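SEQUENCE-TO-STRUCTURE ENTRY
===========================

Backbone structure tokens: a row of integers, each naming the local backbone shape at its residue.

Task: work out the structure tokens from the sequence, keeping to the layout shown below.
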Amino acid sequence: MKKYLTLIALMSLLIFILLLGWGTYKILDADTKTLLPSVEKISSAIQEENWTEAKNNFQKTEDSWNTISNHWAFLINHQEMDRIEESMAKLKGYIYCNDTINAQAEFYVLIHFIKHIPKKNTFNLENLF
């Protein structure tokens, strides 16, 4: 009887861990899909050199990020979040200086960091080892 209880407990723990990993991925993926369109609007404004629109879009993105980062603080490594915040700070500086080239370059860095987080936290064999 003890063998079965141990087996049931271990299987329950495994199922719980798998569901927790899946839920974490779903939250990160949904938040990423919410944040990316907002960030892409910044790029469009930068390409058109419409700095007022870029600043407005950046402010909206920053507000979204502040909400999302509260959820992510419990789910991911804070170093990943620091990279996004550092990239956003640089992007903000480039936008306020009307620096098209550096703003576009930093935009692509920011996009990479945002897309990287759900991929990195996907529950698969590659991420386990």
In short: The chain has five helices and no strands. The radius of gyration is 19 Å.
